[in-house]
Write a structure and sequence with these properties.
The complex is a heterodimer. By secondary structure, chain A is mainly α. Chain A has two domains: 1-131 and 244-272, no CATH class; 156-241, no CATH class. Chain A is 67% helix and 3% strand. Chain A is built from ten helices and two strands; from the N terminus they run H-H-H-H-H-E-E-H-H-H-H-H. In chain A, a hairpin with a 2-residue loop joins strand 1 (93-97) and strand 2. The relative contact order of chain A is 0.16. Chain B is an alpha/beta fold. Chain B has a single domain, classed as P-loop containing nucleotide triphosphate hydrolases (Rossmann fold, 3-Layer(aba) Sandwich), CATH 3.40.50. Chain B contains eleven helices and ten strands. Chain B has helices at residues 44-51, 75-81, 98-109, 113-126, 142-154, 172-189, 200-203, 223-226, 230-235, 242-249, 259-275; strands spanning 4-11, 21-28, 33-37, 59-64, 67-68, 82-85, 160-164, 192-196, 208-213, 216-221. Chain B is globular, with a radius of gyration of 20 Å. The chains are: A mainly alpha, B alpha/beta. Chains A and B meet through helix 8 and helix 9 of A and helix 2, helix 3 and helix 4 of B. Bound molecules: adenosine-5'-diphosphate (ADP) and magnesium ion (MG). Magnesium ion binds at residues 44-45, 164-165 of chain B.
């Protein structure tokens, strides 16, 4: 069963983060994502974690909501952790068995990378949780409008994205309904090996596909009935306005990223 | 000249053998509340789509407010004048936030942002969904979603709303909510309502009922007139309102359509019998 997928879903609240200009939020997210790759020491990772916790509190979104996003990533985090421990070369051997050696360097890299993945997920979820899909797509449309010079239809791409985001929960509901209907007819989704499980998904995906085409047809009709005629001459309920607070927020992000780089130079007890 | 005029209107789907709408004449006045009934495949949805120019007539013509639907240059005007609500609420909600969805129509019309804000708030208040303006539509009940869809249409300030079986997927509470909102729009804002339904209890609440059968208008008049002949309605493959069914089985010949009428009539009958 597919349960609530919260990734990419807006979480309504009235916080400072919710009120920032979506275009700035996208840029800030990019800055921070790049910044996290520079976090190479205990101090800079601590700063990043502190920054994320402050942002979580500022966003007025319950912390478990953020943690939910991490759950599906746990296998990936564990896998990269193990791979790093095995393959990163190092000199200070802590423990060794047969050909395998656990070194301080490998352990350190593995832990840092695990932390970085967690931080990246949390940072990107700030963007999607505090920005409505409409604002997000308008912002992308605005940031990419120079592409129009190259005859790229930026408006249509943005519209497709916002409709895709809008339909995620609807399609999840539908998948669950189909799965239940197939189970009621004796389909078995839970036992057997991976191949068996994938095969069991075919009778779920086919009805989903067919109904999606019907939905698309009906939605197109409904949009036409509401006078949708492409991006030409369209106005927006919420005009994007950047103000002092957006520049301050961007400034804070740049300062934090500089902090990451500076803190990389500080050693604690011989390790970075 | 009537608000909507269909003259010798016919529509044939590509590859279909017969006309889905078979040369009908129809006049609809501004401010009417009309129910359209008919069995499955009788042409109700096709007629609805002909009224706002989503489909263009194969033969004959449709004029709305003196604009022929075939006039390419006035297409947007027409879509704005005649709003349409469909059956499945999920497939007509475009945005992920209620108020942004309601704003979709006015945004397309190029209305200035402050004016959109005003229209969105008013429309949501009209259908009683203002408190939900920041919610995600997929968390609402079916009836609430349809009311949001209605708000999305009112925000375009249409003169007419066509509802194509918009209550078919709702539970009784949702149906009642939607019916109340629509009635209110008709009474207070004078919006013409064309209400396609297969619930006869809803149809009898309209001022006028149009019965379609195989693409032609088989009956057109007040609910009392259309439902007068019990056997004829059954022969068209339709139900009759519960009250009517009950009274018919009790051997009463009158056309008793609403619950209130039914109660009064029953009381009368009982008292008569009590006296003899
Ligand atoms: N896309 C289509 N292609 C061909 N025939 C259609 C199509 N849609 C509907 N029809 C036919 O047109 C007739 C009227 O359909 P419709 O207007 O949907 O009826 P209703 O809404 O009253 O159930 C039916 O006989 C139906 O089979
Ligand atoms: Mg229909």
């Amino acid at each position: 069963m597919i349960h609530d997928i919260s990734f990419g879903q807006y979480y309504p609240a009235s916080s400072v983060l919710h009120k920032l200009d979506a275009r700035f939020k996208i840029i800030m997210t990019l800055v921070l994502v790049v910044g996290v790759f520079f976090c190479n020491s205990v101090c800079s990772i601590a700063l990043a974690a502190l920054f994320c916790i402050t942002m979580m509190l500022l966003s007025k979104i319950p912390i478990p909501t953020f943690l939910k996003n991490l759950k599906p990533l746990i296998p990936i985090i564990i896998l990269t952790f193990i791979l790093n421990i095995i393959y990163v070369p190092g000199e200070h051997v802590i423990w060794s068995v047969w050909k395998f050696q656990l070194t301080t360097e490998a352990l350190q890299t593995a832990v840092f990378i695990a932390f970085r993945i967690v931080l990246l997920v949390i940072i990107t979820s700030f963007l999607t949780y505090t920005t409505t899909p409409t604002a997000l797509t308008s912002a992308i449309e605005d940031l990419l409008k120079w592409l129009k010079l190259f005859k790229v239809d930026v408006h249509s791409i943005a519209m497709m994205m916002s409709i895709a985001l809008r339909f995620i929960p609807t399609l999840i509901d539908e998948i669950n309904k189909i799965i239940n209907a197939q189970k009621a007819r004796g389909a078995d989704f839970d036992s057997g090996n991976v191949i068996h499980k994938l095969k069991a998904l075919v009778p779920v995906l086919i009805p989903l596909f067919i109904s999606s085409f019907r939905r698309a047809y009906e939605l197109a009709n409904a949009m036409e009935c509401r006078c949708y005629n492409g991006g030409e001459g369209r106005t927006k309920l919420k005009t994007m306005q950047s103000g002092l607070k957006d520049y301050i927020a961007l400034g804070v992000c740049l300062a934090v990223v500089s902090g990451f780089i500076l803190l990389n130079m500080i050693k604690i007890a011989g390790v970075y | 000249m009537s608000f909507i005029e269909c003259r010798n209107l016919a529509y044939q789907y590509q590859g279909a053998k017969r006309f889905a709408i078979d040369h009908i004449d129809l006049d609809i006045e501004q401010g009417e509340f009309i129910a359209v009934i008919g069995h499955n495949g009788s042409g109700k949805s096709t007629l609805a789509k002909l009224l706002n120019g989503l489909f263009l007539p194969t033969q004959g013509s449709v004029c709305v407010d003196s604009i022929p639907t075939a006039d390419e240059d006035r297409r947007l005007d027409l879509l704005q004048k005649v709003g349409m609500i469909f059956q499945n609420p999920d497939n007509q909600i475009v945005a992920s936030i209620v108020e942004e969805d309601v704003a979709f129509g006015p945004e397309n019309l190029g209305v200035p942002p402050e004016e959109i804000r005003k229209r969105v708030d008013e429309a949501l208040q009209t259908v009683g969904m203002y408190d939900y303006r920041l919610k995600a539509p997929h968390n609402l009940s079916g009836g609430q979603k349809q009311r949001v869809a209605i708000a999305g249409i009112i925000a375009m300030q249409p003169q007419c709303i066509v509802m194509d079986e918009s209550t078919a997927m709702l539970d009784p509470i949702g149906r009642r909510e939607v019916m109340q909102s629509v009635k209110m729009l008709n009474r207070t804002l004078g919006i013409t309502i064309i209400y396609i339904t297969h619930f006869m209890n809803e149809a009898v609440k309209a001022d006028r009922v149009i019965l379609l059968d195989h693409g032609i208008v088989a009956a057109d008049g007040t609910p009392k007139e259309v439902f007068a002949d019990y056997q004829r309605i059954i022969d068209f493959g339709l139900d009759v309102p519960q009250s009517y069914e009950l009274m018919h089985r009790l051997g009463c010949d009158e056309t008793v359509l609403t619950e209130d009428e039914c109660v009064t009539k029953l009381e009368e009958l009982l008292k008569e019998n009590g006296n003899t």
